[in-house]
Amino acid sequence: MPSSSNTQHTIPMDEMSHFYYYKPYPAGRNFPFRIIFSNGTTLQAEAQHHQTDETGDHLYNITAEKPPLHLCLPRESAHQLILSTDNPDIEPNNEQLEASQQVVDLIDEAITARASDIHMRPMQQYVEVRYRIDGVLEPNKKLSLHHYPAIVSRIKILGNMDIAEQRHPQGGAHHFSYQGRKVDLRISSMPVLEGESIVIRILDPQSGLRALSDIGFLSRDEACFREMLQQKSGLILVTGPTGSGKSTTLYAAMRELRQRDVNIISLEDPVEYQLDRIRQIEINEAAGSTFANNLRHVLRHDPDVILIGEIRDHETARIALQSAYTGHLVLSTLHTGDAPSAIPRLLDMGVEPYTLKDTLLGVLSQRLIRKSCTQCHGASELVSHCNHCNQSGYHGRIPLYELMQVSSEMMSHVHDGITAEEVRQLAVTEGMVPMTQYGAALLEQQATTQQELKIDEPE
Ligand SMILES: [Zn+2]
Fold first, then answer.
1. Are 389 and 375 a contacting pair, CB within 8 Å?
2. What is the pLDDT of residues 216-237, one digit of tens each?
């Protein structure tokens, strides 16, 4: 731990219950700081850059009404905040430092395990920590209730949340540095009977931002989807339940589209990954910022391509279709269980059949299923020794999907009151491979299991 020769007094650690800093803290520059004392008083302060030591770590002094305290903020990892002092009478708050390290280790381990979420749930005897891996929530470890409050505080500090607030749900975000790259964390805390429940969503660009060719579509479908993306105007829909990989597909599509010289504007709820060269707008319906009212502004911003996070009401559906009809390429999602249902769903939302006929290019319906482990193939005699899949028999996920390409011939049969089944028959006549048939093919290739095909039945 680097020390610094400073003769000024130091705030005793035991007087201080919490500290937290404001993000982003630019290394080597001053930043605002807040200290909360165990008696409940809060001190607004400023961390002033003091020096950079031989290892590149920055030392800061914190000045407030009270005398300064030394702080060492390592150059790259904002999550490792180490308090140091050269006053031998002052002991660092070990519990807090331990909690800090425990949180970092936990997040690190979750990212390594390819988890998309970390769940921490206080129970009567202990705190259960679970990781969601390949869509499945699995128990990972138990923490003692005794250390949990310090861990929750540490997580809230990371998320720039109010650590004193324990009675109301809160949300926060943090850029975590993992093996030299940035992984975004979305943190949510919620009071439950036994204490505070924490869920950390891990937005790892390495798994969430993929190329279209890395998602797992058959090459003929990938080519067909790409052809739709090359159109100057029209509507492309991706459908499926929550967690079916719709946004991964749409992000892949946007990354493909931005290679062209076009103006792309996206409306997302929330923005999961930031993409260069795309104007991304975050929708916040609770604050009155809806897809529909943002869309009106977006159209004045001369877009070529518009991504609408989700069509869930008449007004959004109407503007989306109108935009596609007037020369924009529109990408969006709908909450339907299969591709053909998208057409009756939009008509139910009050969309004019003629705008739909002239604009809809295609519908991709997907969900994600777990891929059989390529090492043990889930064989009962091998799976219990297989480290590749953590003894689960599965590793990674692939899309189970159907891609409905829309032709003018097909659309000439679309009318108000058409059923999903009638659309399905037309689509199959034109070559759509239904999801069930594709699933059977995956099963035959032993790419997945019967059990995976059963989950997520279409609504
Ligand atoms: Zn395995």
1. yes
2. 999 999 999 999 999 999 999 9
Rg (the chain; Cα; Å): 26
Compute the distance from residue 397 Cα to the ligand 1 centre, in Å.
14
- The alpha carbon of 404 and the centre of ligand 1 are apart by a number of angstroms equal to 34
Work out the angle at residue 7's Cα, subtended by the Cα atoms of residues 5 and 13, and round it to the nearest 5 degrees.
Answer: 90
CA distances from 88 to 9, 10, 66, 85, 308 (A): 12, 11, 19, 8, 59
Q: Would the pLDDT of 200 be above 90?
A: yes
Does 92 score more than 80 pLDDT?
no
Indicate if the pLDDT at residue 75 is higher than 50. Answer: no
Contacts by 41-45 with C-beta closer than 8 Å and gap 24+?
Answer: none
| CA 444 / ligand 1 centre spacing (Å) | 19
286's tokens: 């609770």
Q: What phi and psi values does residue 317 have, to the nearest 5 degrees?
A: -60, -45
Higher pLDDT pick, 219 / 92: 219
Q: State in Å: Cα 124 to ligand 1 middle.
A: 34
Task: Look up the pTM and report it.
Answer: 0.78
Max CA pair span of the chain = 85
